[in-house]
From TrEMBL:
Protein name, UniProt field: L,D-TPase catalytic domain-containing protein
Domain (L,D-TPase catalytic): residue spans on this chain: 96-220
Region feature Disordered, mapped onto this chain: 43-81
UniProt-annotated catalytic positions: 169, 196
Keyword vocabulary terms for this entry: Cell shape, Cell wall biogenesis/degradation, Peptidoglycan synthesis, Transferase
GO cellular component terms listed in the entry, alphabetical order: extracellular region
Entry keyword Heme: no
């Protein structure tokens, strides 16, 4: 009898032990699963809610940046300044210089690598190209000139090469100082000059009034 009770007791202990281990294993599995779920939730919260939505936002931001750049420029009008903002105060930028882009038909007022102002331009045609390289604003400047051989003149001219040969100036005029609209309307669109750099009237006047002798000019 005692032996039977002993066997039964051992069996009960084994069952309880096994059950205890099973419960412990189950509890460990639950804890492990909860940790996994928490990790998934944390990762999910850290990720964007919608990739497509983010892509759209990124595209909108890119478009906004482009639009913002374009919106800084007035529509091409040779009678008006090229940009909607004020011209830069060159007294604040002693190292400013002018960069002419033949490929883009633009003149940039630069400070280091930063563009302070952008101007529409028309550089030399294929038959009379604008010289490329590095130059300086020269002493010669004036309010008006007329070239009888080309039958064109211009206002607010400033020399940058060969002392009165290669100039920044307005879109062209006739001998009476009247602007030639057919030529002026090519500003910012086509290289049409005889080697000089044509500009909108206010832009040329600003260079005439504000750009000092000796300022660097880069043309590429």
């Amino acid at each position: 009898m005692k032996r039977f009770e002993l066997i039964v007791g051992v069996a009960i202990l084994m069952i309880l032990s096994t059950f205890g281990l099973s419960v412990h294993a189950y509890q460990k599995q639950v804890v492990r699963q909860e940790k996994v779920e928490l990790q998934k939730t944390a990762v999910k919260k850290s990720l964007p809610k919608s990739t497509s939505k983010d892509d759209k936002l990124a595209a909108d931001e890119a478009n906004a940046t482009t639009t913002s750049k374009d919106s800084k420029m007035n529509p091409i009008d040779w009678k008006k300044p090229s940009e909607k903002k004020d011209y830069p105060d060159l007294t604040k930028y002693p190292n400013a210089y002018l960069k002419v882009s033949i490929s883009k038909q633009r003149v940039y007022v630069m400070n280091g690598n930063k563009v302070l102002y952008t101007m529409y331009a028309s550089t030399g045609s294929k038959d009379s190209p604008t010289p490329t390289g590095t130059f300086q604003i020269q002493a010669e400047r004036g309010e008006f000139f007329y070239n009888a051989s080309s039958k064109e003149g211009a206002k607010y001219w400033v020399s940058f090469k060969d002392h009165g040969i290669y100039l920044f100036h307005t879109v062209p005029t006739d001998k009476n100082g009247n602007f030639i609209e057919e030529e002026a309307n090519q500003l910012g669109k086509e290289a049409k000059s005889h080697g000089c750099v044509r500009l909108a009237v206010p832009d040329a006047k600003w260079i005439y009034d504000k750009v000092p002798e000796g300022m660097k000019v880069e043309i590429h």
